[in-house]
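User: Show me an example of a complex going from sequences to C-alpha cells.

Assistant: Sure. Here are the input components:
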Amino acid sequence: MDSNLLLLISLVKNGGTLTELRRRGLRYSQIGHLVESAIENGLIIHSEGTVLLTDHGFALLESARFPGKSGTKAAWIAPADHERVDRLAPDAVYLPRKPPTLSDM
Amino acid sequence: MPRHLPPSTQSPTTLEDALPVDAFFRLLSLFSRKGWPHHAPNGEDGEDGVHPVFDAFCRMTARLHNQERELVLKLAEDFLWKTLGDYGFLCSSALSKVDMPTWNNASRIFFVPLVHPKDLDKGKSGLELPRIAKLHAVPSIQGLQTAVQNRTLHCLESMEALARRWGERNGALIVFFDDFMGTGESALSAIEHYRTEVAVESDTVIVVVLVGMEAGVYDVSHKACSVYTARTVQKGISDNPSLDSTDKQAASEIMREIEQRIRVSRKHLFGYGSSEALVALENTPNNTFPVFWTTTEVGGHSWPAPFPRAR
C-alpha cells in the first residue's frame, strides 16, 4: 500500500493538516488525485465536504499499525524515505529547515 | 571551505502547506459543485496534473485564519469563473436578449469593443468580443442570423475605426462589447468619447457585456443606453441574500482584516469602487475582492491568489 495513501486515510480518521503530505513533495492537485484513488479503492467516502473512513479503510489502517506478531519489523516500520538526506561531506555545514512562523502569515 | 549541500528529498514547508484536512475536502467539494477542475490532464496547464487555480486556492486558504477561511469559502460559493472558452456561449446569451426590431430597424450593424482609445494599450480582455460574437454567437441565434444576413455586419477593432466609417452610417446599429462592467465608470467614459468624437446622429447604440454588476448596469442604462448582459451579479457581502445585517457587518470586518494584512491599496479595498465583485474572467476585474487576485508580498511570500490579474 502506498504510504501516501495510508497517511491520507490516517488524516481522514484523525484530522490534522496536510503538511506532511506537502513535505513529501505532493502538490494539492496531486493530493486530490490521492483522494480519488482512496475513493476508488473503497477506503473513504466523500460527499459534500464530509469525509468518512469506510470499514475497509479502517481495517487497512489498523493492519498497517498492528500487523500481528508474525510480522517482521520491516512490516510495521515504514522507512521514512522522504526524510532521507544524502551523505554529507565532513566539511559541509547543515542548516535545518526553518519552521513556519507568524511572520509568514 | 563549506560546500553546498546536495538537494534534499524533503520540501521545505510554510504555512501554505498547513491546510487542515477538512478544509481541503470542502475545497474539493466546492470545485466539484462548481464544475471547476482540481487537476489538469498531464502535460496541460500545469506540471504533473497540477491545476494552478486549485493549487493556489488551497495555498491561499491555508494562509487564512479560521474565521477568514469560513468567509472566503462562503464567498467562493457565489464566485463566477469564466474563461475565454465560455465567451461564445455568454455572448449568445447576452445578444439573444436584444429584441428583434432593434436589429431589423438597422441599415448596417457595427460590432465594436467598448474601450476608450486611451485604454487600448492596457490589453483589455474584451477586445476580441466583436469577432467572437460574429463567429460564434450570431450563428447560434436563429432570428439574429436572418437579420444579419439581410444587412452588412462590420466587426471593428476600435472606436477610431468606427469614426473612419462615418460615411457608411445612416441608421446604423452600433453594438459596443465588453466582457465585464463593474462600476460602469469605464463604460460611461468610453460612451462619452463616442458621443463627442465618433457619433453620427442617426446611430442607435446598445452595450452588450458578458457579466455586469447590478449597480454599474443600472447606472449606464439610465445615463447612456440600453445594456444587455449574459449574467448580472450583485455585491458579494452587502447584497448577499444569505447574510443578515449582523452577518454582513461581521463579514465586512473580517474582510477588512484580511485586506489590511495582505496590504491592499486604498483604491482596491473590497474591489475597485468597493464593488465587492466575485468574478474572474479572461482577466480578473479589479472590482473583485483583492484576496482572490492580489499578488502583493506578505511575510516574504507572494500572496497565492487563485485568479491573479494579468499585468
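The lines above are the inputs; the final block is the predicted structure for all two components together. The two ends of chain A are 36 Å apart (CA to CA).
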